[in-house]
User: Which sequence fits this backbone?
């Protein structure tokens, strides 16, 4: 027993609550505060947005003109792969996580998420996983099999370099991070709403976040299995994807796309939620058909599990499967259309103002619609046989992802940054960012429709000068520079506004939802008292309707905030050790001991986690 | 309008040896609880939902490749009804003892609950022992991970199930230990044991699926 | 605080104990499992087994669904618990069942023990395939060509091994070239098969024998890999119609 108390003492936590907002290094490393974690995700997401953009810039320079030799072969493939992997998993998803972490608790009137330490664990697992993935450049090469990593291309025989090993290991960590966060936020949104906030009074953004958290929790496991099978093939010699032993290439595709399709709804629904929050504020109108918008999001989430085969129309699934997936894909366009019409309905006849968040949100509608229209074309299986693996697809998903998701995220940044920093952002710079970026993205991605129609395949590092693709490619590359410039202006705006921005106050936009009730930036405990909600516009009621004001309780409440903790980082570190041991299995002897050490450290850290006082 | 944040923290109470005697959350925590349900139980059910997708993928992969092995021993060459019966029975009984542990905890009987947790963990560990024996026996018969699609799919699927059982054994053992040492908040014990029980029963029902579709259907061919 | 509505408190303020119900259920589950495990032993009694052939597999599935439901509903207490728990678990379960179990089972041979597999020895293509890099000028062989070569190689190996097994075990009754011998063995070189000509049918014939025509079971004499190879060899004999062969017995199979 004595030995155990020494052990306990060594693990004794520094028990103090995160009640004042402190910003030292250790505070950032041990924070369990959803707001700080949101900022961490936001900074990481912006950083990787720049990295992914640079990767795109580099390879677009290569294909700006035919017959160039700047980045060729696997170097080119590596840039393409990392561009997509970075953008999907390390830029857009953490930016979504930033909004989710920072604002979901505020918008539902809670003080934090359901499991604050698990929340920190998700952050550290993402952080270490993204570093592990990118370290492929240092220790091997960039993975070069596309962000979809199709087997058998990713088998050891076809991709002997260890880049793919870093890829599956990093992605596994990112998958764990998202699955855990998914469970955390589902519980938070279900169970930690303020009194009176029934599900239909929950803001649209929070609803969309809830839908995507379900999608993350339930769609990541299949790709986790796919990655595990791949890792076993590459590390232990199993034959899941080994076609000479009967392995079927369809297996990877099914496992990947059962995840991959819900994933794209994960990428777009939050931006749709942000747009649904911003348009009403600057049109001074409630959202038209709010319930319809919510139900459309729910419908998209569910049916999204039934359309994955539309990525496999050329894989030879057979006519029945093709027909089924074409039908379900066509059906899922309907709720998207419902949302668009409801936004238009919100704006119809409204007296709008046009600060930066509004113009980004407005631009979402036409840009996303363009992407949606090319998407409907892809839903048509015979047509897709021509379009698949051509630049037409590249045009489609960039319009929905950049013109849609990213524009929505930018809108959210401008809208919510005053709450986070307490300072308004510079309007003029914001408009410069918008125009540079909007023109740039159209310059880049519109010509890709034409390129696809003229037969340019994806993922090629050069093309003959007489194919007729030269002008469009040059145009596309020029647009990238504009987008880069716009993004740099954006970063500059953030940094200078932090220093010199005008004070924002609590409610700079005169909005309707609870997050604007908190201070800017919010106190550590968010709200001094728990708000009580009577409608889907609690702040509006509070400001304008005397009998629906948020009551001040007679007695002061005792507020207990969770305390700082190192344990989440330790558990994430343990996972890194396990993976590193596996990655080195064929390189250094006894590397499996590293994995064992990782496992044991996880058990120890979890013991400390469970027994530390919160 | 500002709340009165306690000047000295009533929760930070430590004795001379540094042991924490804080109230571990017995105080009035102003934390919303809209559905009136424990967060941890909601989280566990959601997690088990995602595990359905996880094991669904693994078992689905087994089906996908069933009958397509090109080499090596086939299921009928290696499966043994004897070992399978014992394993299945053990895990089934462990579900019963787990349910009894949860029940004992709800009856405010931590000692009995702890005992049932230990029995459950032992049954689970024995199950894992049988799995290890079965695996080594199959390797003897010429079925390795790399031998064929059957080898790969079988070992990975049942191996991950066994891994989940192992995690459960460690969890239940730690829980029993912590109950024994009184290191957990007594008010939270019933829900903690219940949630551990949910995980354990899930591991059992995954085995029911594997047992039926992988072993039994093979035995009746 | 938990709202399980049939946990009424008794006089002591504690919910009723479910111990008896759990033990009863445990016994029931054990009995069901014993039945499931006993079923394969019925195969030794073909008079009982054969008439109900299509029933056994669905019966096993039904029994396991019952056990699954019992553990989830009772031990995990999902039945009668709050709807949100049911939603959180049952919706992904439904998605998993539909996507993986149903689709996987429908598209692949779940209820057949084996498909048209070929007994090959492991083919090593790890050596020899080089991904093109900037520096290497040589064009590596196409994967497809490598596979075709490996496939042809495996076919040849199979043929040899199958013929060797045939000579060892089958030649005595079915003749050197498969033409058959009167009262001993059928003609294997025509298109007629009394017990079916598919891979599976032939496999069962060879492995388990056919009592009706005194074809002995070869499962003891040949390993399963050898049985597959000899079936492959026998299938290659189909349609060769060696002169002087035994007359056609059974149905003509077009294949």
Assistant:
């Amino acid at each position: 027993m004595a030995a155990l108390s020494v052990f306990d003492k060594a693990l004794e936590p520094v028990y103090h609550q995160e009640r004042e907002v402190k910003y030292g290094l250790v505070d950032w490393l041990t924070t369990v505060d959803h707001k700080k974690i949101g900022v961490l995700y936001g900074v990481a997401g912006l950083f990787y947005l720049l990295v992914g953009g640079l990767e795109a810039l580099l390879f677009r320079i290569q294909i700006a003109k035919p017959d160039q030799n700047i980045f060729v072969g696997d170097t080119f493939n590596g840039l393409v792969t990392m561009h997509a992997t970075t953008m999907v998993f390390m830029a857009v998803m953490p930016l979504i996580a930033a909004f989710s972490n920072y604002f979901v608790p505020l918008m539902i009137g809670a003080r934090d998420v359901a499991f604050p330490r698990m929340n920190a664990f998700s952050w550290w697992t993402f952080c270490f996983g993204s570093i592990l993935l990118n370290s492929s450049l240092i220790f091997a090469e960039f993975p070069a099999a596309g962000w979809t990593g199709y087997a058998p291309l990713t088998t050891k025989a076809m991709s002997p370099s260890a880049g793919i090993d870093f890829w599956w290991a990093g992605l596994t960590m990112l998958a764990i991070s998202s699955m855990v966060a998914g469970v955390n936020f589902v519980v938070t949104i279900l169970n930690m709403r303020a009194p009176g906030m029934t599900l239909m009074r929950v803001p649209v953004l929070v609803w969309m976040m809830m839908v995507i958290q379900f999608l993350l929790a339930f769609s990541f496991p299949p790709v986790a299995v796919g990655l595990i099978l791949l890792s076993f093939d590459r590390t232990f010699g199993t034959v899941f994807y080994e076609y000479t032993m009967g392995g079927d290439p369809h297996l990877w595709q099914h496992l990947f796309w059962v995840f991959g399709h819900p994933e794209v709804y994960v990428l777009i629904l939050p931006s749709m939620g942000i747009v649904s929050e911003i348009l009403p504020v600057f049109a001074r109108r409630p959202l038209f058909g709010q319930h319809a918008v919510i139900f459309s999001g729910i419908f998209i989430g569910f049916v999204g599990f039934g359309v994955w085969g539309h990525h496999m129309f050329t894989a030879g699934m057979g006519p029945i499967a093709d027909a089924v997936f074409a039908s379900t894909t066509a059906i899922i366009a309907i709720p998207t259309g419902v949302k668009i019409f409801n936004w238009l309905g919100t704006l119809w006849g409204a007296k709008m103002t046009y600060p930066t968040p509004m113009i980004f949100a407005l631009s979402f509608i036409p840009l996303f619609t363009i992407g949606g229209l090319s998407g409907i074309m892809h839903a048509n299986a015979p047509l897709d046989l021509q379009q698949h693996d051509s630049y037409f697809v590249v045009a489609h998903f960039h319009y929905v992802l950049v013109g849609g998701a990213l524009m929505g995220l930018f809108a959210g940044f401008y809208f919510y940054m005053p709450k986070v920093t307490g300072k308004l952002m510079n309007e003029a710079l914001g408009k410069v960012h918008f125009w540079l970026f909007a023109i740039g993205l159209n310059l880049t991605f519109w010509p890709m429709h034409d390129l696809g129609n003229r037969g340019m395949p994806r993922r090629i590092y050069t093309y003959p000068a007489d194919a007729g693709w030269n002008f469009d490619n040059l145009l596309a590359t020029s647009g990238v520079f504009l987008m880069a410039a716009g993004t740099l202006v954006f970063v500059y705006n953030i940094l200078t506004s932090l220093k010199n921005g005008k004070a924002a106050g609590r409610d700079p936009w005169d909005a309707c939802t609870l997050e604007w009730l908190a201070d800017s930036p919010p106190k550590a405990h968010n709200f001094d008292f728990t708000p009580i909600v009577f409608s889907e516009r609690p702040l509006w009621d509070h400001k304008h309707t005397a009998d629906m004001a948020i009551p001040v309780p007679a007695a002061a409440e005792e507020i207990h905030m969770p305390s700082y903790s190192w344990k989440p980082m330790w558990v994430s570190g343990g996972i890194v050790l396990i993976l590193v041991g596996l990655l080195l299995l064929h390189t250094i002897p006894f590397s499996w001991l590293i994995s064992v050490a990782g496992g044991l450290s996880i058990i120890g850290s979890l013991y400390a986690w469970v027994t530390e006082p919160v | 309008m500002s709340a009165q944040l306690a000047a000295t923290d009533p929760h930070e109470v430590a004795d001379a040896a540094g042991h924490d005697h804080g109230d571990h959350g017995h105080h009035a925590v102003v934390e919303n609880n809209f559905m009136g349900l424990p967060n941890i139980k909601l989280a566990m059910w959601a997690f088990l939902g995602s595990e359905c997708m996880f094991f669904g993928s693994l078992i689905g992969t087994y089906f996908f490749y069933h009958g397509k092995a090109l080499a090596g021993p086939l299921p009928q060459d290696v499966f043994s009804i004897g070992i399978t019966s014992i394993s299945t029975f053990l895990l089934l009984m462990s579900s019963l003892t787990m349910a009894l542990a949860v029940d004992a905890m709800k009856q405010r009987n931590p000692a009995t609950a702890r005992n049932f947790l230990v029995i459950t963990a032992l049954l689970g560990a024995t199950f894992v022992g049988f799995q290890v024996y079965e695996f080594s026996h199959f390797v003897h018969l010429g079925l390795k991970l790399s031998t064929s699609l059957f080898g790969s799919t079988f070992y990975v699927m049942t191996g991950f199930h066994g891994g989940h059982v192992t995690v459960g054994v460690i969890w239940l053992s730690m829980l029993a230990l912590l109950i024994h040492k009184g290191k957990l908040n007594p008010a939270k014990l019933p829900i903690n044991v219940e949630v551990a029980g949910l995980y354990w029963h899930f591991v059992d029902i995954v085995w029911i699926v594997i047992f039926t579709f992988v072993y039994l259907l093979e035995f009746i061919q | 605080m938990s709202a399980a509505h049939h946990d009424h408190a008794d006089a002591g303020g504690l919910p009723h104990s479910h111990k008896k119900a759990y033990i009863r259920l445990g016994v029931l589950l054990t009995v069901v499992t014993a039945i499931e495990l006993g079923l394969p032993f019925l195969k030794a009694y073909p008079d009982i087994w054969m008439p109900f052939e299509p029933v056994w597999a669905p019966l096993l599935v039904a029994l396991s669904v019952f056990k699954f439901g019992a553990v989830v509903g009772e031990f995990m207490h999902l039945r009668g618990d709050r709807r949100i728990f049911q939603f959180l678990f049952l919706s992904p379960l439904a998605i998993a069942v539909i996507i993986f179990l149903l689709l996987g089972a429908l598209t692949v041979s779940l209820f057949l023990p084996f498909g048209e597999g070929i007994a090959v020895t492991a083919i090593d293509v790890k050596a020899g395939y080089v991904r093109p890099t900037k520096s290497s000028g040589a064009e590596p062989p196409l994967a497809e060509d490598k596979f075709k070569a490996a496939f042809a190689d495996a076919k040849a190996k199979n043929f040899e091994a199958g013929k060797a097994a045939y000579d060892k075990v089958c030649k005595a009754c079915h003749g050197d070239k498969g033409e058959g011998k009167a009262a001993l063995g059928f003609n294997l070189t025509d298109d007629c098969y009394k017990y079916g000509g598919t891979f599976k049918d032939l496999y069962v014939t060879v492995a388990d024998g056919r009592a009706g025509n005194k074809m002995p079971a070869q499962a003891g004499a040949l390993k399963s890999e050898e049985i597959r190879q000899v079936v492959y060899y026998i299938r290659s004999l189909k349609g060769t119609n060696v002169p002087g062969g035994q007359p056609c017995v059974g149905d003509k199979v077009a294949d």
Q: What stands out?
A: Chain B touches chain A through 60 residues (CB under 8 Å).
